[in-house]
């Protein structure tokens, strides 16, 4: 984080550098958005019988379930495997999105997001984790 000195000690080169970084980020915003919206995340279950593909926001686009899962029918295990595989695919797309933002945004904009629920932090969380955190806050009387 760059501190802006007070009075006659103003470091105008630091301010100019920050302004240039911000201007570059704004100029690249449309390209970054297009790149991020084109992302997908893919994951396979550990046994290789389930494949999930999610879009840039973690929404399920494709789900392939190999017919061999029916050799040992267990609906609860199948459901859990599907959820875990979709979550892994979501991890994949979150990681790819974060990489795009890391190289596109100045560090000051990433690190100084205000508030407990800033967009930078929220963009790296699964919906289930957000829901669980909100439940804990309600229980603790924080919400």
Report on the structure:
The protein has helices spanning about 10-25, 30-35, 75-105, 105-110, 120, 125-140; strands at about 40-45, 50-55, 60-65. Helix 2 packs antiparallel against helix 3 (about 75-105). The protein has a three-stranded antiparallel β-sheet with strand order 1-2-3. Strand 1 (about 40-45) and strand 2 (about 50-55) form a beta hairpin. The protein has about 140 residues and is mainly alpha-helical. The longest helix is centred in the middle third of the chain and has 30 residues, at about 75-105. The mean pLDDT is about 80.
Amino-to-carboxy terminus distance? 30 Å
Main sheet makeup: 3 strands, antiparallel
Q: What is the overall silhouette?
A: elongated
Helix content: 40-55%
Broad structural category: mainly alpha
Strand order of the largest sheet: 1-2-3
Low-confidence stretches: none
H/E element order: HHEEEHHHH
How many alpha or pi helices?
6
């Amino acid at each position: 984080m760059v501190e802006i000195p007070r009075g006659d000690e103003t470091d105008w080169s630091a301010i100019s550098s920050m302004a240039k970084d911000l201007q570059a980020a704004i100029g690249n915003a449309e390209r970054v958005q297009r790149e991020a919206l084109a992302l997908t995340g893919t994951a396979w279950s550990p046994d290789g019988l389930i494949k999930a593909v999610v879009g840039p926001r973690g929404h399920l686009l494709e789900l392939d379930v190999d017919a061999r899962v029916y050799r040992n029918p267990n609906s609860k295990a199948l459901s859990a495997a599907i959820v875990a595989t979709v979550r892994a695919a979501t991890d994949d797309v979150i990681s790819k999105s974060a990489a795009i933002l890391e190289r596109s945004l100045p560090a000051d904009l990433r690190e100084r997001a205000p508030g407990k629920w800033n967009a930078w932090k929220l963009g790296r969380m699964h919906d289930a984790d957000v829901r669980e955190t909100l439940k804990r806050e309600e229980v603790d009387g924080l919400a």
